[in-house]
C-alpha cells in the first residue's frame, strides 16, 4: 500500500490501494515474491525492534500485573484459608455471599459515603485553594508548596499525627474545643464520627493534589476571555460559572476519575492506622484486608471482593470515558 | 476483505483462547490443591537418631523491643551448641509475622517462628507446625518446668505445638496518689469492690474516669474475659458458643455497661496512655505495659491481681507469644530448632528476657529476685500466674472471633445496646463462623 502524503488519510488509503492492485496485476511473479520477502523482512525487523524495546516492559507488566490479576480471579472461585495448601472450588459462591450478606451491603454503604466525602471534599476545597493561589499574592510559592506537601507524605505518618490531634482525652483538638466549652466528639468510639474523621484526614492529605491540578487548569485559561468578561461587567461569580468552570471541565473530569480511583484504593494506610479494626470505616479496600489478613483468614472470599473492586473501578472509568467525556468542554 | 477480517478475527480468538488456557493452567498449577485428596502422607519422625543441623533460621518480631536481649541469648546458644542462628525480623508485630509465615506456604525458610496465642492456630490448621513433644524430648528439654497454663495454651488434640516465650497476662493497675486522695487503703479484690472504690474516686474528682475499659482495637475480649469469668460466664466452652449469651455473661456485661454510665469510660486508644496521663485512675492492661507505664507516669503505680466475682477469685487469661517449629524444615533443623526453643525458654533465659521486656517468666524456676528489687510491681504479675487460665476457643481459635467479640463489647460499652440481644447475635455469628470456616477441620 503506497502512502499518499498530500491528501487526507482516507483518500491516501483508497488511492494507495488502487495503485497497489494495479501494480499487482501487471508485475511478474518473481517481483511479487521479492516484494513479499522484503515486506516480511521489514515486518520481522519491526517486530524485533518492538520486542527489544517493549519486551522487558511487557514481561514486567505480565508478571506483576496481569499474572496476579488472573491469579486473583482464579482464587476468588475457591474456599481457601490463607496459606493453606488445599482449597475447595466453590464457583461464584464467594461473589454471591458478598452481594447478598448484610456485611457486604454495609461495606458498599461505607465505601459510598467515604468516596463521596473524600472526592467532593478534596475537589471543592482544592478548587477554592487553587483560585486563591492563582492570584498574584505575596508568598504564593511557599503556600503552594505547603498545600501540596501533605500529598507526598506517608499516609501512615499523617494518620499517626492526626491520631494525636483527634484523641478526645489528650488530643489538641479536644483542648481547643474544651476552650470554647464544646465537648470533643468520640471520634474513635462512634462509627459515624470515625468515618467523618478519616474523611477529614483523607481530604486534608489529598486536597493539595487537587489544588495543584486545578491551578494548572486555571493557568491555561486565556486571560483575554476573563478580561473581556470583566470589561462586559461580569462579576467574579458570573466569570467563574460562565467562563472559568466550563473551561475547567477537562480538569474536573480528570480529577473526578483519578480521585474516585484513589479514594477507593489508596486510602488504606490512613484507614488502617486510624481505625485498626475498621470500626465504622470498613470500606471495600479495608474489607479485602480484613477478610484475608486482618481477621477471618478467608483468602478466596477476599480475592472475590478484590475482583469486585477491580470491575467496579473498570466500569466507573469506562462509563466516565464513554459518556461523561463527551460532555467535557475542551478548548 | 471480509473473509480476511473473519480469518484474522478467528486467528485472534484462537490465540486469545490459547493464551487464556495456558494462563489458567499455570494458575491452577501454582495455586492450592483443589483435588480434595487429603494429604495424609506425613509420617512421624523418630528424632532419636537425628543429628542437629549446624544452622537454623529464627523468625521474630522482637516482641516488647527484645532485639538486644534476643541477640544476647542467641550468642549464648551458639557458644554452647555451635549452632548458628540466622535471625530474620519477620514483621512489626505478631500479626505481620503470622501473615508472612502463612503466605510463604512452605517457602518460609523459617525453622523457628514467634507466633502469638491468637495467630498460631491457623498455622496449625495449615499443617505448617510440627508437634514439639517428641522434639523436646530428643533435644533434652524438660517441659515440666514451664508454667503449666502457659504451656497448655499450645495443647491441641493431645499434642503441644509450641513452647511459651514472650508471655503476658492482664494486670490490674491503679494510681496510688488517686487512691490516697480518695481515702482508699487497698486495691479491690472483686468487681463489686471495683465499683465501690470507683465511686469513691469519682466523688473525690481525681480523674476524668475512675476506670477505663479498652476500645475495640485494644483486645477488649482478652482483658474482659476476667470480668465474664468472675460472674461464671465465658466466651465459649470448647466449641460450644452458648456461654457467650448465658445469663452469667450477660450479667457481667450489664455490670460493665452500667459502669460506663457511672464511674467508667472507654479509652479512645491504649488505656495505658490514659492511665499514665492520670486521666483514668484504674485500668486492666497487659503486664507488658508495666515498663512503659512506670516510665511515663509521674505518680506511684500500684498493681494488683485481677478482681474476682460471684463465681470465685479473679482469674487471668493468658496471652503473648510462643516459639513454634515449622513442619517443612528437615528433621535435623527441627531438632536444632527444638534445642534453640528450649534455650530461649529456659529458667535462666526467661528471667533475663522478663527483666528486659516486662513479659512474665515462663519457667517456674526463673530467679526473678533482681527484677523484683528494681520493679516490685512486677512480683504481682508473676504471683498472679497461679490464677492463669487458658483463653476460650471463641477468641483464640475461631477466625474473626476476636473481632466479633470486640465489636460487640464496644457496642455495649459505648451505646445503650441491649446486652442480651447483642450477645445472642454474637453467638449466632460465632456459630456461623465455626460452621463455615472450622467445623470440617477440627475435632468436635
Q: Would you give an account of this structure?
A:
The complex is a heterodimer of chains A (331) and B (444). Chain A has 331 residues and is mostly helical. Chain A has two domains: 9-75; 93-327, MetI-like (MetI-like fold, Orthogonal Bundle), CATH 1.10.3720.10. Chain A is 75% helix and 1% strand. Chain A is built from 14 helices and two strands, in the order ααββαααααααααααα. Chain A has a two-stranded antiparallel ribbon. In chain A, a hairpin with an 8-residue loop joins strand 1 and strand 2. The model of chain A is unreliable at 1-22 (pLDDT under 50). Chain B is of the alpha/beta class and 444 residues long. Chain B has two domains: 47-167 and 319-366, D-Maltodextrin-Binding Protein, domain 2 (3-Layer(aba) Sandwich); 170-317 and 390-437, D-Maltodextrin-Binding Protein, domain 2 (3-Layer(aba) Sandwich). Chain B is built from 20 helices and 14 strands. In chain B, strands 2-1-3-13-6 form a five-stranded mixed beta sheet. Classes of the chains: A mainly alpha (331), B alpha/beta (444). Chains A and B meet through helix 2, strand 2 and helix 13 of A and helix 1, helix 3, helix 4 and helix 19 of B.
Amino acid at each position: 500500500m503506497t502512502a499518499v502524503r498530500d491528501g487526507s488519510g482516507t483518500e491516501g488509503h483508497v488511492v494507495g490501494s488502487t495503485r497497489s492492485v494495479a501494480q499487482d496485476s501487471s508485475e511478474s511473479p518473481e517481483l511479487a515474491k521479492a516484494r513479499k520477502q522484503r515486506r516480511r523482512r521489514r515486518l520481522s525487523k519491526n517486530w524485533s525492534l518492538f520486542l527489544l524495546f517493549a519486551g522487558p516492559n511487557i514481561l514486567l507488566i505480565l508478571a506483576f500485573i496481569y499474572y496476579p490479576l488472573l491469579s486473583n480471579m482464579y482464587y476468588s472461585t475457591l474456599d481457601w484459608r490463607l496459606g493453606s495448601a488445599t482449597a475447595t472450588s466453590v464457583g461464584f459462591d464467594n461473589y454471591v455471599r458478598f452481594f447478598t450478606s448484610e456485611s457486604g451491603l454495609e461495606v458498599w454503604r461505607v465505601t459510598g459515603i467515604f468516596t463521596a466525602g473524600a472526592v467532593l471534599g478534596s475537589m471543592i476545597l482544592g478548587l477554592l485553594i487553587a483560585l486563591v493561589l492563582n492570584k498574584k499574592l505575596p508568598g504564593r510559592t511557599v503556600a503552594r508548596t505547603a498545600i501540596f506537601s501533605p500529598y507526598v507524605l506517608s499516609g501512615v505518618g499523617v494518620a499517626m499525627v492526626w491520631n494525636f490531634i483527634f484523641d478526645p482525652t489528650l488530643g489538641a483538638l479536644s483542648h481547643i474545643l474544651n476552650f470554647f466549652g464544646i465537648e470533643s466528639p468520640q471520634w474513635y468510639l462512634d462509627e459515624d464520627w470515625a468515618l467523618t474523621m478519616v474523611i477529614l484526614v483523607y481530604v486534608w492529605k489529598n486536597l493539595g493534589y487537587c489544588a495543584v491540578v486545578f491551578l494548572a487548569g486555571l493557568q491555561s485559561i486565556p486571560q483575554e476571555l476573563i478580561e473581556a468578561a470583566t470589561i462586559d461587567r461580569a462579576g467574579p461569580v458570573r466569570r467563574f460559572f460562565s467562563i472559568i468552570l466550563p473551561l475547567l471541565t477537562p480538569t474536573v473530569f480528570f480529577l473526578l476519575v483519578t480521585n474516585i480511583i484513589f479514594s477507593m484504593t489508596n486510602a488504606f494506610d490512613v484507614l488502617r492506622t486510624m481505625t485498626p479494626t475498621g470500626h465504622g470505616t470498613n470500606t471495600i479496600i479495608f474489607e479485602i484486608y480484613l477478610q484475608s489478613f486482618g481477621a477471618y483468614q478467608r483468602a478466596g472470599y477476599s480475592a472475590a471482593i478484590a475482583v469486585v473492586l477491580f470491575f467496579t473501578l473498570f466500569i466507573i472509568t469506562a462509563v466516565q470515558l464513554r459518556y461523561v467525556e463527551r460532555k467535557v468542554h475542551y478548548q | 476483505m471480509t473473509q480476511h477480517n473473519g480469518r484474522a478475527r478467528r486467528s485472534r480468538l484462537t490465540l486469545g483462547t490459547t493464551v487464556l488456557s495456558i494462563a489458567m493452567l499455570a494458575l491452577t498449577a501454582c495455586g492450592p490443591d483443589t483435588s480434595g485428596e487429603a494429604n495424609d502422607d506425613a509420617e512421624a519422625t523418630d528424632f532419636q537418631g537425628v543429628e542437629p543441623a549446624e544452622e537454623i533460621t529464627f523468625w521474630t518480631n522482637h516482641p516488647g523491643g527484645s532485639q538486644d536481649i534476643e541477640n544476647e541469648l542467641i550468642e549464648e546458644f551458639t557458644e554452647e551448641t555451635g549452632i548458628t542462628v540466622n535471625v530474620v525480623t519477620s514483621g512489626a508485630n505478631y500479626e505481620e509475622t503470622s501473615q508472612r509465615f502463612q503466605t510463604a506456604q512452605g517457602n518460609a525458610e523459617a525453622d523457628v517462628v514467634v507466633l502469638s496465642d491468637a495467630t498460631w492456630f491457623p498455622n496449625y490448621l495449615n499443617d505448617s507446625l510440627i508437634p514439639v513433644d517428641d522434639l523436646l524430648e530428643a533435644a533434652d528439654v524438660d517441659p515440666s518446668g514451664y508454667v503449666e497454663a502457659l504451656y497448655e495454651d499450645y495443647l491441641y488434640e493431645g499434642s503441644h505445638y509450641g513452647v511459651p516465650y514472650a508471655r503476658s497476662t492482664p494486670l490490674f493497675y491503679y494510681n496510688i496518689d488517686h487512691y490516697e486522695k480518695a481515702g482508699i487503703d487497698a486495691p479491690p479484690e472483686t468487681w463489686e469492690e471495683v465499683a465501690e472504690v470507683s465511686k469513691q474516686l469519682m466523688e473525690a474528682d481525681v480523674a476524668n474516669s475512675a476506670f477505663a475499659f479498652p476500645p475495640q482495637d485494644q483486645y477488649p475480649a482478652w482483658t474482659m474475659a476476667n470480668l465474664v469469668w468472675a460472674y461464671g460466664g465465658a466466651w465459649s466452652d470448647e466449641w460450644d458458643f452458648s456461654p457467650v449469651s448465658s445469663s452469667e455473661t450477660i450479667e457481667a456485661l450489664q455490670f460493665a455497661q452500667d459502669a460506663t454510665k457511672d464511674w467508667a469510660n472507654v479509652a479512645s486508644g491504649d488505656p495505658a496512655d490514659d492511665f499514665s496521663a492520670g486521666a483514668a485512675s484504674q485500668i486492666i492492661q497487659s503486664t507488658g505495659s508495666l515498663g512503659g507505664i512506670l516510665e511515663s507516669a509521674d505518680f506511684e503505680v500500684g498493681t494488683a491481681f485481677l478482681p474476682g466475682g460471684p463465681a470465685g477469685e479473679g482469674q487471668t487469661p493468658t496471652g503473648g507469644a510462643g516459639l513454634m517449629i515449622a513442619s517443612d524444615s528437615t528433621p535435623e533443623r527441627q531438632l536444632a530448632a527444638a534445642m534453640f526453643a528450649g534455650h530461649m525458654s529456659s529458667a535462666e533465659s526467661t528471667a533475663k528476657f522478663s527483666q528486659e521486656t516486662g513479659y512474665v517468666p515462663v519457667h517456674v524456676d526463673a530467679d526473678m529476685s533482681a527484677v523484683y528489687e528494681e520493679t516490685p510491681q512486677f512480683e504481682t504479675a508473676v504471683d498472679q500466674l497461679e490464677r492463669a487460665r487458658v483463653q476460650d476457643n471463641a477468641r483464640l481459635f475461631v477466625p474473626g472471633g476476636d473481632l466479633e467479640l470486640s465489636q460487640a463489647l464496644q457496642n455495649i460499652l459505648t451505646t445503650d445496646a441491649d446486652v442480651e440481644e447483642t450477645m445472642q447475635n454474637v453467638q449466632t455469628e460465632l456459630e456461623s463462623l465455626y460452621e463455615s470456616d472450622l467445623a470440617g477441620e477440627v475435632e468436635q
